[in-house]
Structure formats: structure tokens, C-alpha cells
Amino acid sequence: MIRHKLFTKGDHIHALITNSKFPNVLIPVRAIIHDVEFDEKMPRYQISITKFYDELKFLKKFMFGMKYEKSFEGGYTKFNLSRKNLKTRKELENHVKSNWETYSIVVDSVMCARTRDDIFKLYTDIQDFLIERKLKELFELSNRPTYKEGKYFYKSRGIFDAHLKKFLGDRWDGDPEYFNKLLYNPNSIELDDLE
After folding, report:
1. What is the distance in angstroms between the CA of the first residue and the CA of the last residue of the chain?
2. Lowest CB count within 10 Å: 26, 56, 73, 86, which one?
3. Minimal CA–CA distance to 115: which of 7, 24, 26, 39?
4. What burial letters (b/e) apply to 19-52, b meaning 16+ CB within 10 Å?
């Protein structure tokens, strides 16, 4: 059963797009829906971008030269643009809008929202999750006994927690369970119970 807002052709929406090379880099955009593919699990939309919210420098690094799904039948949109020829984000937006058929992209409906505020709320929630996952990964990499001679080695989780508290400063809400949840590492018996 679908539990999120559905849109129709011609609707102006906001979406998070991503590509196959950097799947965890989400790019918030404003767009128009040109086609809809209904599915019992998750509708998808073919969109054309009308506005980018990221800086041009970021877009040149993580969007240019990357592949995006183009249509429901397959194929890819590739932003083969010269980085040196585009000086402003507005130039990029005008180029993409005037060639929208070349730069159409397919997005899942769960990555779409009606308003800018809604898409940035979704974007922030996903970014928080990705950052927290990297923090956990950082602890796991720097806490291994085989790495004990390494520059970034942490002998105990308590020391890592203290450094992380200092790093987070007032961004940490004071929840005493925060670090237990963030750095939770299941033991081998718990892993055996996973299916």
C-alpha cells in the first residue's frame, strides 16, 4: 500500500536525485513531472529540473559526467557538460531547462515532495543517517586491535565518545543513550540470529 503523496503530470515538485557512482550523494532540485509510471509498490516520475539548490562547485564535482536513469524503458541521462564553460548555477539551470528532454531523470516517488521545506526535511533526515553511519564506521576502523599502532587508533569507546562529544559540541542533545545507539555493534550471537 502506498503511504506517501502522489503527484501527476505537470505538477511542480521538489526531488532528491542521485547517480550510480555516488549513490549516497543526494542533490535536491525543483522539477516538473513529465510522465508517471504507476506501480503497486512505488510510483516513479520522469522529471525535468528547473532549479538546483547546491552550489555550482558541488554540482560540477558530483553531478557532471554522472549517469541518471532517463526513462521508464531504460537508458541514461548523462550531464556531459564542460565544467569550465559554466560560470553560474543560473547558466546551468537555463541550459538544463532549455534541453529538458536531453536531461530528463526518473525518480522514485518517495524521493519527492510538494514543498521545498518538505524535501529539505527529508534530505536532512537522510544526511543525518549517512553521517551517523560514517561516524560509526570511523569508530570501527579506528578501534581494531590490529590497528593499535595507527595514527587514529582509539583504545576504548569511552575515549572515542569523549572526543565525539567535543566534536559535536552543542549539536549533541545530551541524550545519554545517543552514543550507545550511534556506536551499537551487535555481538556474534545477535548476528547469528539475523536472517
Report:
1. 24
2. 73
3. 7
4. beeeeebbbbbbbbbeebeeeeeebbbbbbbebb
What are the sequence ranges of the domains in the chain? Answer: 12-117, 120-192
Read off the DSSP letter of residue 169.
G
Question: Cell numbers at residue 78, please?
Answer: 548523462
Give the pLDDT confidence of 89-119 residue by residue, as tens digits. 999 999 999 999 999 999 999 999 999 999 9
pTM comes to: 0.84
Q: 68 with 77: CB under 8 angstroms?
A: yes
Beta strands in 2-161, from DSSP E residues, in sequence order:
12-17, 27-37, 44-52, 67-69, 76-78, 105-108, 112-113
d(CA 154, CA 67): 39
**Measured between alpha carbons, how far is 106 from 70 in angstroms, rounded to an integer?**
6
With a cut of 60, say whether residue 194 has pLDDT above it.
no
Which CA distances in Å does 70 have to 19, 73, 97, 147?
Answer: 11, 8, 15, 44
Is 8 within 8 Å of 25 (Cβ atoms)?
A: no
Quickly count: other Cβ atoms within 10 Å of residue 17's Cβ: 22
91: CB partners within 8 A, 6+ apart: none
State the Cα–Cα distance between residues 29 and 89, nearest whole angstrom: 12
